Amino acid sequence: xxxxxxxxxxxxxxxxxxxxxxxxxxxxxxxxxxxxxxxxxxxxxxxxxxxxxxxxxxxxxxxxxxxxxxxxxxxxxxxxxxxxxxxxxxxxxxxxxxxxxxxxxxxxxxxxxxxxxxxxxxxxxxxxxxxxxxxxxxxxxxxxxxxxxxxxxxxxxxxxxxxxxxxxxxxxxxxxxxxxxxxxxxxxxxxxxxxxxxxxxxxxxxxxxxxxxxxxxxxxxxxxxxxxxxxxxxxxxxxxxxxxxxxxxxxxxxxxxxxxxxxxxxxxxxxxxxxxxxxxxxxxxxxxxxxxxxxxxxxxxxxxxxxxxxxxxxxxxxxxxxxxxxxxxxxxxxxxxx
Length: 338
Ligand code: PLP
Ligand code: COI
Fold this sequence. Notes:
By secondary structure, the protein is an alpha+beta fold. It contains 6 helices and 18 strands. It folds into 2 domains: 6-152, Aminotransferase class 4, branched-chain amino acid transferase, N-terminal domain (D-amino Acid Aminotransferase, Chain A, domain 1), CATH 3.30.470; 163-325, D-amino Acid Aminotransferase, Chain A, domain 2 (Alpha-Beta Barrel). Strand 1 (19-25) and strand 2 form a beta hairpin. It binds pyridoxal-5'-phosphate and 2-OXO-4-methylpentanoic acid.
């Protein structure tokens, strides 16, 4: 693509050539269709608009040094879309249909897959919405599934440089027994105000605590939280946290590198004991956390020197990226090579 400056891409939407769609009606999914239309025609009483019947996913395709295109952990994203849909009483595509739509959307936009070495990737956004008219609070009978792609750079402008994060005790992104563990738009709507306030205060990230007691660490913006201490990879476990596929992968990599993996409730009070901290996710990859600021106690927690990534964050990041880009063998079978 002659007029895209791949190296300076941020995390935003750029129009690509085609997206892939299917509709569910009369108890079955129609065939996948490819279209150049960026818009959807929707009934004004569709359940996605009124009652939040919406699921999305996020995964990435990478162009390797060998010219091959790899997609990371399609099946896990498909399974998470299915479990979100089940929670929201929605009809989901099968793993196979999801896989087919994702690979088709990537193939159809091959010229938008950033070249190897630019650091940019092709972000894949599958979307599932309830589409027929319901005025009572009921699940839809009809659904639309679509997959679009867009080339992206780093989620945080810091890239792999540590981010600054602020604790927010005034807003919760999800209730203890709510929808935090599934990937639906409402969780993100609930996070917009705290994200905006954090930005205004100079912090790109928000650290959420558990909604009930504000005692445990929950999530870090649209990413999971992890920390390193005494040879341990420590990450919170809670019903209100989205099960991150990146985190799941890092736990495997960390274990194989000799770290002990602890997935458990993590007290906010432990923060001062961590040697390193990070946010992880498809968009964030690993964003090391340099500083956590707690405005309620006017206290700052700094990891390392606060401006350079720590050694474990760096090792984990490099190993994960090497597998994703095909620079190293993929012993786990995580990548689909197109
Ligand atoms: N937590 C939230 C709230 C997210 O939106 C995401 C992004 O998908 C993640 C965690 C990271 O999940 P994954 O690694 O599967 O992208
Ligand atoms: C992702 O990491 O894929 C996300 O969904 C995070 C954000 C862009 C919503």
